[in-house]
Design brief:
This protein is an alpha+beta fold. Helix content is about 50%, strand content about 20%. The longest helix has about 30 residues.
Length: about 230
């Protein structure tokens, strides 16, 4: 019997991605520890190690996206909606990227309404926001601001940077209907947007769906990513 009749390749791929993701998590932790020791010792390779840590984090995020998208497609990813303290969520994202932030001398400000909590899938929203922050770190110049507040009946989380802003084609993709197309295969940003929109729309409350918005000329005169969850 031909091999392709015995195996579901998508399942094999998902299993391989899961295994790679676990290995990359260990690699991320190791490179972070090495970069920290190198910086403390004043070694010249500390900056290079920090960039390595950053790229490993980006690759790990991409694999997590692929695994989550596969599970959504197979309807094997039930939403786990629990109360989440937003300040804790955003601080966790900061500390995941702290090594690169400090090495690049970036200024990252977090501003959250005191005591703000929301019912959401913390794992998926963490995936989403961390990918946006990693992207902002790549394209901003020196400043990023992450803010969260309640706006009407939505939780609003915004990520502003002082970069050159989103290309128009990325803004157009963000505002298009939620449907995968060849456009998403042209660059990682397209896949990341599809992932973000999918997670946002999966949060439904009282007939309202979550959404994302992309704009330029925000608080820091660069790009602004906004997540709204009902």
């Amino acid at each position: 019997m031909p091999l392709h009749n015995q195996l579901d390749f998508s399942t094999v791929l998902a299993t391989a991605v899961h295994d790679m993701k676990n290995s990359l998590c260990m690699l991320t932790q190791s490179t972070e520890a090495i970069a920290l020791r190198s910086k403390q010792l004043g070694r010249e390779d500390s900056e290079e190690l920090s960039r390595l840590h950053y790229e490993v984090s980006r690759l790990n995020g991409s694999l997590m996206q692929l695994l989550a998208l596969y599970r959504f497609e197979k309807e094997q990813m039930p939403m786990t909606i629990e109360e989440c303290y937003i300040e804790d969520l955003l601080n966790d994202i900061y500390y995941k990227n702290k090594t690169f932030i400090e090495q690049a001398n970036m200024s990252v400000q977090i501003e959250v309404e005191e005591g703000l909590s929301w019912y959401l899938d913390g794992v998926l929203v963490d995936y989403l926001l961390n990918d946006i922050v990693v992207n902002a770190l790549r394209y901003s110049k020196k400043q990023i601001k992450i803010s969260a507040k309640q706006a009407d009946s939505y939780l609003c989380i915004q990520i502003d940077d002082d970069g050159d802003g989103f290309p128009q084609e990325i803004i157009d993709l963000a505002h298009a209907e939620l449907a995968p197309s060849l456009d998403f295969l042209n660059n990682r940003s397209g896949l990341g947007l599809f992932f973000a929109k999918l997670i946002a729309k999966a949060h439904i409350n009282s007939g309202k769906e979550g959404r994302i918005e992309l704009n330029n000329g925000g608080l820091l005169e660069g790009s602004r990513f906004s997540l709204y969850l009902p």
